[in-house]
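Duplicate of #3305? Posting structure anyway:
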Protein backbone atom coordinates (compact mmCIF):
# COMPACT_ATOMS: atom_id res chain seq x y z
CA UNK A 1 0.00 0.00 0.00
CA UNK A 2 2.87 2.37 0.75
CA UNK A 3 4.19 2.00 -2.78
CA UNK A 4 0.75 2.73 -4.24
CA UNK A 5 0.42 5.87 -2.10
CA UNK A 6 3.88 7.13 -3.03
CA UNK A 7 3.25 6.60 -6.73
CA UNK A 8 -0.03 8.47 -6.47
CA UNK A 9 1.64 11.34 -4.61
CA UNK A 10 4.35 11.52 -7.27
CA UNK A 11 1.72 11.81 -10.00
CA UNK A 12 0.02 14.57 -8.02
CA UNK A 13 3.27 16.51 -7.72
CA UNK A 14 3.82 16.27 -11.48
CA UNK A 15 0.38 17.71 -12.24
CA UNK A 16 0.71 20.40 -9.55
CA UNK A 17 4.12 21.46 -10.88
CA UNK A 18 2.79 21.76 -14.43
CA UNK A 19 -0.16 23.84 -13.23
CA UNK A 20 2.20 26.23 -11.47
CA UNK A 21 4.45 26.41 -14.52
CA UNK A 22 1.60 27.28 -16.89
CA UNK A 23 -0.69 29.38 -14.72
CA UNK A 24 1.50 30.90 -12.00
CA UNK A 25 5.13 31.23 -13.07
CA UNK A 26 4.34 31.91 -16.74
CA UNK A 27 0.91 33.47 -16.32
CA UNK A 28 0.10 35.94 -19.09
CA UNK A 29 -0.56 39.39 -17.57
CA UNK A 30 -3.03 40.00 -20.39
CA UNK A 31 -5.37 37.21 -19.30
CA UNK A 32 -8.63 38.94 -18.38
CA UNK A 33 -9.80 39.13 -14.79
CA UNK A 34 -12.90 37.11 -13.91
CA UNK A 35 -14.51 35.29 -10.99
CA UNK A 36 -15.11 31.64 -10.17
CA UNK A 37 -18.66 31.95 -11.53
CA UNK A 38 -17.08 32.49 -14.96
CA UNK A 39 -15.12 29.24 -14.58
CA UNK A 40 -18.05 27.02 -13.65
CA UNK A 41 -21.40 26.74 -11.90
CA UNK A 42 -21.22 27.07 -8.12
CA UNK A 43 -23.57 24.59 -6.44
CA UNK A 44 -24.54 24.39 -2.76
CA UNK A 45 -25.95 21.31 -1.05
CA UNK A 46 -28.55 20.41 1.52
CA UNK A 47 -29.50 17.83 4.16
CA UNK A 48 -32.76 15.86 4.24
CA UNK A 49 -34.34 15.74 7.71
CA UNK A 50 -32.44 13.27 9.89
CA UNK A 51 -35.69 12.44 11.70
CA UNK A 52 -37.12 10.85 8.54
CA UNK A 53 -35.52 7.46 8.02
CA UNK A 54 -37.27 7.14 4.67
CA UNK A 55 -35.15 10.04 3.41
CA UNK A 56 -32.07 7.82 3.55
CA UNK A 57 -31.18 4.57 1.78
CA UNK A 58 -28.51 1.88 1.83
CA UNK A 59 -28.06 2.12 -1.92
CA UNK A 60 -29.60 5.36 -3.10
CA UNK A 61 -28.30 8.69 -4.33
CA UNK A 62 -24.70 9.38 -3.34
CA UNK A 63 -24.59 12.13 -0.70
CA UNK A 64 -21.29 13.55 0.50
CA UNK A 65 -20.45 15.45 3.69
CA UNK A 66 -17.16 17.10 4.76
CA UNK A 67 -16.80 14.25 7.27
CA UNK A 68 -16.61 11.81 4.36
CA UNK A 69 -13.65 13.73 2.94
CA UNK A 70 -11.99 13.89 6.36
CA UNK A 71 -12.18 10.10 6.67
CA UNK A 72 -11.36 9.25 3.05
CA UNK A 73 -8.46 11.34 1.78
CA UNK A 74 -8.88 10.08 -1.79
CA UNK A 75 -8.86 12.48 -4.70
CA UNK A 76 -11.90 10.81 -6.26
CA UNK A 77 -15.14 9.98 -4.44
CA UNK A 78 -18.23 8.05 -5.51
CA UNK A 79 -20.22 7.61 -2.28
CA UNK A 80 -20.10 8.75 1.33
CA UNK A 81 -21.09 7.05 4.55
CA UNK A 82 -24.78 7.62 3.79
CA UNK A 83 -26.93 7.71 0.66
CA UNK A 84 -30.22 9.54 0.40
CA UNK A 85 -33.43 8.26 -1.16
CA UNK A 86 -35.26 9.86 -4.07
CA UNK A 87 -37.83 11.04 -1.53
CA UNK A 88 -35.12 12.57 0.63
CA UNK A 89 -33.66 14.27 -2.42
CA UNK A 90 -37.03 15.75 -3.33
CA UNK A 91 -37.53 17.03 0.23
CA UNK A 92 -34.19 18.83 0.52
CA UNK A 93 -32.31 21.64 -1.20
CA UNK A 94 -29.45 19.43 -2.34
CA UNK A 95 -28.78 19.14 -6.08
CA UNK A 96 -27.51 16.35 -8.30
CA UNK A 97 -24.12 17.13 -9.85
CA UNK A 98 -22.41 15.24 -12.68
CA UNK A 99 -19.20 13.23 -12.65
CA UNK A 100 -16.25 15.59 -12.90
CA UNK A 101 -17.70 18.12 -10.47
CA UNK A 102 -15.06 19.44 -8.08
CA UNK A 103 -16.33 19.26 -4.51
CA UNK A 104 -15.11 22.03 -2.20
CA UNK A 105 -15.96 22.07 1.52
CA UNK A 106 -17.01 25.57 2.46
CA UNK A 107 -17.03 25.20 6.25
CA UNK A 108 -15.84 23.03 9.14
CA UNK A 109 -13.28 23.10 7.57
CA UNK A 110 -12.87 25.14 4.42
CA UNK A 111 -10.83 23.48 1.71
CA UNK A 112 -11.46 19.75 1.46
CA UNK A 113 -11.34 19.11 -2.29
CA UNK A 114 -12.36 15.98 -4.21
CA UNK A 115 -13.62 15.01 -7.64
CA UNK A 116 -17.00 13.32 -8.20
CA UNK A 117 -16.62 9.95 -9.92
CA UNK A 118 -20.33 9.75 -10.65
CA UNK A 119 -23.49 11.76 -10.21
CA UNK A 120 -23.85 12.74 -6.57
CA UNK A 121 -25.17 15.28 -4.08
CA UNK A 122 -23.67 16.97 -1.02
CA UNK A 123 -24.84 18.52 2.22
CA UNK A 124 -24.75 22.27 2.82
CA UNK A 125 -21.08 22.14 3.83
CA UNK A 126 -20.02 22.44 0.20
CA UNK A 127 -19.81 25.04 -2.54
CA UNK A 128 -18.92 22.74 -5.42
CA UNK A 129 -17.89 23.75 -8.92
CA UNK A 130 -19.28 22.16 -12.09
CA UNK A 131 -16.63 23.17 -14.65
CA UNK A 132 -17.71 24.94 -17.80
CA UNK A 133 -17.28 22.77 -20.89
CA UNK A 134 -14.23 24.66 -22.17
CA UNK A 135 -12.58 24.67 -18.73
CA UNK A 136 -12.50 21.07 -17.50
CA UNK A 137 -12.14 19.27 -14.19
CA UNK A 138 -8.34 19.14 -14.00
CA UNK A 139 -7.94 22.90 -14.26
CA UNK A 140 -10.70 23.63 -11.73
CA UNK A 141 -9.28 21.11 -9.25
CA UNK A 142 -5.85 22.73 -9.15
CA UNK A 143 -7.27 26.24 -9.45
CA UNK A 144 -9.26 25.73 -6.23
CA UNK A 145 -6.15 24.44 -4.49
CA UNK A 146 -4.27 27.53 -5.63
CA UNK A 147 -7.10 29.86 -4.58
CA UNK A 148 -7.57 28.33 -1.13
CA UNK A 149 -5.77 31.16 0.77
CA UNK A 150 -7.93 33.74 -1.05
CA UNK A 151 -11.13 31.82 -0.30
CA UNK A 152 -10.19 31.42 3.36
CA UNK A 153 -9.55 35.16 3.53
CA UNK A 154 -13.03 35.87 2.16
CA UNK A 155 -14.76 33.58 4.67
CA UNK A 156 -16.65 34.95 7.65
CA UNK A 157 -18.39 33.71 10.77
CA UNK A 158 -18.01 33.85 14.54
CA UNK A 159 -18.41 30.16 15.47
CA UNK A 160 -16.58 28.83 12.41
CA UNK A 161 -15.47 30.38 9.16
CA UNK A 162 -17.63 29.76 6.08
CA UNK A 163 -17.56 30.97 2.49
CA UNK A 164 -21.06 31.75 1.25
CA UNK A 165 -22.43 30.91 -2.18
CA UNK A 166 -22.26 34.56 -3.20
CA UNK A 167 -18.74 34.78 -1.82
CA UNK A 168 -17.63 31.68 -3.70
CA UNK A 169 -19.05 33.01 -6.95
CA UNK A 170 -17.16 36.27 -6.51
CA UNK A 171 -13.71 34.77 -5.78
CA UNK A 172 -11.35 36.65 -8.13
CA UNK A 173 -9.21 34.81 -10.66
CA UNK A 174 -8.22 35.15 -14.32
CA UNK A 175 -9.38 33.46 -17.51
CA UNK A 176 -6.35 31.82 -19.19
CA UNK A 177 -6.24 31.17 -22.90
CA UNK A 178 -8.46 28.16 -23.61
CA UNK A 179 -5.68 26.48 -25.60
CA UNK A 180 -3.41 26.60 -22.55
CA UNK A 181 -6.17 25.16 -20.39
CA UNK A 182 -6.71 22.36 -22.91
CA UNK A 183 -2.97 21.66 -22.97
CA UNK A 184 -3.04 21.25 -19.21
CA UNK A 185 -6.18 19.09 -19.23
CA UNK A 186 -4.65 16.82 -21.88
CA UNK A 187 -1.54 16.44 -19.72
CA UNK A 188 -3.61 15.60 -16.65
CA UNK A 189 -6.05 13.17 -18.26
CA UNK A 190 -3.79 10.06 -18.12
CA UNK A 191 -2.50 11.11 -14.69
CA UNK A 192 -6.00 11.37 -13.25
CA UNK A 193 -7.00 8.02 -14.77
CA UNK A 194 -3.95 6.36 -13.24
CA UNK A 195 -4.69 7.96 -9.88
CA UNK A 196 -8.24 6.59 -9.95
CA UNK A 197 -6.85 3.10 -10.58
CA UNK A 198 -4.28 3.47 -7.80
CA UNK A 199 -6.87 4.69 -5.31
CA UNK A 200 -9.13 1.73 -6.14
CA UNK A 201 -6.18 -0.63 -5.64
CA UNK A 202 -5.34 1.02 -2.32
CA UNK A 203 -8.93 0.60 -1.11
CA UNK A 204 -8.87 -3.07 -2.17
CA UNK A 205 -5.63 -3.72 -0.30
CA UNK A 206 -6.90 -1.87 2.78
CA UNK A 207 -10.10 -3.94 2.82
CA UNK A 208 -8.06 -7.15 2.44
CA UNK A 209 -5.80 -6.13 5.33
CA UNK A 210 -8.76 -5.23 7.53
CA UNK A 211 -10.43 -8.58 6.88
CA UNK A 212 -7.29 -10.71 7.35
CA UNK A 213 -5.68 -9.00 10.33
CA UNK A 214 -8.32 -9.98 12.94
CA UNK A 215 -8.19 -13.58 11.70
CA UNK A 216 -4.41 -13.62 12.01
CA UNK A 217 -4.54 -12.09 15.48
CA UNK A 218 -7.16 -14.61 16.67
CA UNK A 219 -5.34 -17.57 15.19
CA UNK A 220 -8.18 -18.35 12.81
CA UNK A 221 -5.58 -18.25 10.05
CA UNK A 222 -2.40 -20.17 10.92
CA UNK A 223 0.71 -19.09 9.08
CA UNK A 224 3.21 -20.88 11.34
CA UNK A 225 3.88 -23.53 8.69
CA UNK A 226 4.66 -21.00 5.97
CA UNK A 227 8.31 -20.85 4.87
CA UNK A 228 8.91 -17.08 4.81
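Output from current build:
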Amino acid sequence: MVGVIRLNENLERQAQAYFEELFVVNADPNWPECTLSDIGSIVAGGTPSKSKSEYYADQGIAWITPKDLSVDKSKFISHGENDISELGFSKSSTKKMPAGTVLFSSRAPIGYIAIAQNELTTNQGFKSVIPNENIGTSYVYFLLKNLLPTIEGMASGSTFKEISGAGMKSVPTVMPDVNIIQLFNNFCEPIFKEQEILEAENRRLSALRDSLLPKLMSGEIDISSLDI
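Confirmed duplicate; merging threads. The first strand starts at residue 33 and ends at 35. The mean pLDDT is 92.
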